Amino acid sequence: MIVHPIPPLFDKDSRVLILGSFPSVKSREAQFFYGHPQNRFWKVIAEIFGEDVPKTVPEKKALLTRNKIALWDVIHSCEITGSSDSSIKNVTANDLTKILEKADIKAIYVNGKTAEKYYKKYIEDVIGREAVCLPSTSPANAAWKVDKLVEAWSVIKE
Q1: How far apart are CA 60 and CA 42, in angstroms?
Q2: What is the pTM of this model?
Q3: CATH topology assigned to domain 2-153
Q4: DSSP H or E stretch at residue 24
């Protein structure tokens, strides 16, 4: 069983919540979200807001905070082989009320089908809010090039 090692990123001004499924091995090593160099998340977010792609964790945090984005994952703990979403089992969900009670979140988005699946299964009914599924920024979703991801993800912009 692996417990999610990264705290949620948000503040009282956050308006949009983006949820992944569970951090990859690279993200767990980096102790921050979307740590795999091939994941397009940071490129996409930077492009949407017309900013430079952040390189360091402080730059990534600042980009999200400036743009009122909260970031976390659906899963608190699970069994997982490497970074393979298809191997996930014995899931416990994160408690999103930590964020929802402190920030006026206007919209919730999930990054890919795995996050959507576990959100619908464990969280949606508990908090009574739907999440919009966006195409995964993972390199495994090779059919979606960066420009198409930016187009689809632009809905997060207030």
Answers
A1: 8
A2: 0.95
A3: Uracil-DNA Glycosylase, subunit E (3.40.470)
A4: none
